[in-house]
Write a structure and sequence with these properties.
Distance between the termini: 53 Å
Radius of gyration: 30 Å
Number of domains: 3
Number of helices: 15
Shape: elongated
Strand content: 15-25%
């Protein structure tokens, strides 16, 4: 989106990201973690907060939050503690949430974000482990709480392992906020610890926004924005809120520390409730859980599971000669497409050309066919690209060859021959076509000899037409130059 910051003002933005982990069971009980179930079927006394039920930590969740922290360059705490975060809301069955406060599992990391042609380093203050709440279903106009006739509660989600990743206030523009969210989601998805699907709520973004005059160091009053269920929504909501706050201040008003709701349809935020401070939550150490101890050996074992991350891939692709923007697209592409690129390069394809074909023609073909199956291997793609480089098929004919290969018609050379797409390499035959074209277009020849060099393009086109597009354009150009003197 096109956006310009209000003159004389700077936005200060931090993003809180909630990631639901895809563990088989919940954070503190053995109930199943699943999406789309009938309401209140995956529940037990522990996740319903019934008296006498005691929590037991999910070891897989602790390992996965540590993996997230390592991927975000965080320090992993040798000892971490759970706390009770006390507040009252209908979807919180215990009236407190088991979370973390001053000693999170992960702290002091960073994520480099590519945006607007440069790289911005966004600090990660912390990543802490907690449990998710239940889900409220507001029945009434628009499904909003303020217009609801009644509210129904589904506790299937209550107790699902949740990782909250809190950035430092290093973000300055809506575009940076969107890019940070996209690249953080790519990291989480690469680790395989979460579905990271915005449409299912398994990754959710809240933005804390304040504004200040550009020459001022002191931070303004921050406002939290919720209900942004897409990257586009996040960018639009941040842009709107910045303008709203500046307008309020310039009109002589003050900004209230509050939580606001983003209305996607109206394109505005509106107030929900006054924002609490940490003291309002009355944190205290969870008495039913012992501290988590992650020793050096355990950290090393978790670190050994780290895959190649998107930022590392981008650098690898760029270093190989792939254009920066294409490298970004390829780094975030499906593993099958990245594997196709790597296999094609290993088979001898030029990296830049292979990357362009994978992100362009191959991806485009899959979208047209509405399939996620990559039905070409790296060896065949490299063979096809070699045929183009050697002049055996034209660039346009190569797209038809790709279609045949991906439809299962065989090797690129066989497809090109069967579909009659091989270029004419017989110099004698091309020379005959050139002579015929020159004889049929004396006016064009005369214009060329009078200094109108661009006529050559027309003549080459006529040669290609005469040979049904099979003549090698380089050979046709050379012969025309020779004949025209």
């Amino acid at each position: 989106m096109s956006w310009k910051s209000p003159d004389g003002w700077e936005a200060v933005i931090g993003i809180e990201v909630h990631v639901e982990l895809r563990t088989a069971s919940k954070m503190f009980c053995g109930c199943r973690v699943a999406f789309g179930q009938e309401p209140n079927v995956d529940v037990c006394p522990t996740c319903l907060g019934l008296p006498g039920a005691l929590p037991v930590p999910n070891v897989q969740a602790i390992e996965w939050i540590s993996l997230i922290g390592l991927a975000l360059n965080c320090t992993i705490s040798e000892q971490s503690v759970f706390h009770r975060k006390n507040y009252f809301y209908a979807d919180l069955p215990k009236n407190y949430q088991i979370s973390q406060y001053d000693i999170p599992v992960c702290h002091d990391g960073w994520l480099d974000v590519d945006v607007d042609g440069g790289t911005v380093r966004i600090g990660i203050e912390r990543a802490h482990q907690e449990e998710d709440t239940g889900k409220s279903l507001h029945l009434g106009d628009g499904g909003r709480i303020h217009a609801a006739r009644e509210t129904l509660l589904d506790f299937n989600r209550s107790g699902v392992p949740l990782v909250e990743i809190v950035s430092r206030p290093d973000i300055r523009t809506p575009a940076q906020a969107k890019a940070y969210a996209q690249q953080l989601r790519a990291v989480v998805a690469e680790l395989g610890v979460s579905d990271a699907r915005l449409e299912e709520g398994s990754i959710r973004f809240d933005a804390n926004i304040s504004v200040r005059p550009v020459e001022q160091d002191e931070l303004g009053t921050k406002v939290e924005i919720k209900n942004m269920n897409s990257f586009r929504s996040l960018e639009r909501a941040v842009a709107f809120e910045i303008v709203r706050q500046v307008g309020e201040i310039e009109a002589g008003g003050t900004i209230v520390q509050e939580t606001r709701h983003w209305d996607e349809e109206a394109g505005v935020t509106y107030g929900m409730r006054t924002k609490e401070g940490s003291s309002d939550y009355r944190y205290f150490t969870e008495p039913d859980l012992t501290p988590i101890v992650i020793d050096a050996d355990w950290r090393a074992e978790i670190a050994s599971r780290l895959p190649e991350l998107p930022a590392t891939r981008r650098t690898r692709y760029s270093d190989a000669g792939v254009d920066r923007q294409v490298a970004q697209v390829l780094a975030d592409a499906a593993p099958e497409l990245r594997g196709l690129y790597d296999a094609a390069v290993e088979a001898g394809a030029e990296p830049r050309v292979a990357a362009n074909w994978v992100t362009g023609e191959v991806t485009g073909w899959m979208r047209r066919e509405d399939t996620e199956v990559v039905s070409i291997d790296g060896t065949r793609l490299a063979s096809l690209l070699a045929m183009v480089a050697e002049g055996m098929v034209s660039a346009s004919a190569a797209k038809e060859v790709l279609d045949g290969v991906m439809l299962g018609e065989g090797e690129p050379a066989a497809v090109a021959e069967a579909r009659d797409l091989l270029q004419m390499t017989d110099t004698g035959a091309i020379e005959q076509a050139v002579e015929a074209v020159l004889a049929a277009n004396p006016d064009a020849v005369e214009r060329y000899r009078n200094g109108e060099a661009k006529v050559v393009g027309f003549l080459v086109g006529q040669v290609m037409r005469a040979t049904q597009g099979k003549a090698d354009p380089k050979t046709a150009n050379a012969l025309l130059a020779q004949k025209l003197g």
